[in-house]
Amino acid sequence: MQNTSKPDKRFEGIAEAMLSDVEKEENIGLDEEFRSHLKEELIEKVKQHAEIKRRQAQERKKKEAKAGEVSFLRFGLNFRMQHLALAAGVIILIISGLPIKFHDTIVAKIFFELTGGITVSRIIHRIGATLLIIVSIWHLTYITLTKNGRSDFKQLLPTMKDFKDFLQNIRYFMGVTKEKPKFGRFSYVEKFDYWAVYWGMVIMILSGLLLWFNNFFLGVVPKFVFDIATEVHSDEAMLATLAIVIWHWYNVHFNPEVFPFNPTIFTGKISKTRMLRDHPLEYEQVTSNARERQTDKK
Ligand code: HEM
Prior knowledge:
By secondary structure, this protein is mainly α. 80% of the residues lie in helices and 2% in strands. The protein is built from 13 helices and 2 strands; from the N terminus they run H-H-E-H-H-H-H-H-H-H-H-H-E-H-H.
């Protein structure tokens, strides 16, 4: 239990000094009962004031610490815009696609009532699909034609270290080792996320195009290909939705280490604390590159 006797004595001293000052200045002696009542009230007020001041100082310290902390640029504007467009496209596709899949449920019926029917959903779905196709072309251009894109893509390729990190993480979570794996720019979790989206986009776009232009494709490919595409599109949609809501959102926002929200994908910035915790190998590389550049200048 917290020991409160010392602060209480201090507050009592302050109240006593204030009352004595008033008595001296006004040259009066206060009635004993009235004086002790006044003193109790003063102690309470001084306590409340001290608590407010303590909280304000704490807030100020927190803000100063945040403002003074070095931050690193994790994602450039191009990368952030791609992510925003991808997120918007996928959310539109999920919201308009799932009611088509589960069209005879109550939720879907309410959705169609509110949005103007299944025909509207089909149109919205095609708008989302067009956005997704644009993002995929944009991303392919980014990873082939820009320096940052090429570098990010190389670092997103799976390596043996990812497999070792995965095993070590399991050992860490099971309490077998106290050492967490040290990640570079992208951990195996982030790489898995990236490749799941990459693979998912190829599947959804190809099968979606087949469904969209069914009249054309039914004359070109056998019917069973069309049937497979319909099944694949429908099942992969469920998988993608669950992967985003459970896997992706948990890892980037709901994980206790970042909860309730990780702003990096919007601001592009990552704090030194998070850099040291989540990407220590990248931190070492970035700081040693900066040191080398400084030595070169001298
Ligand atoms: C993350 C991306 C996507 C999700 C979550 C998604 C989801 C869905 C779902 C759940 C359905 C209903 C399937 C069923 O009836 O069982 C559907 C239908 C459809 N999707 Fe997608 N989809 C996505 C991407 C795309 C893309 C990229 C295209 C086109 C290039 C596309 C075109 C279509 C078409 C044409 C239909 C048939 C709709 C209709 O009945 O007219 N989808 N989608």
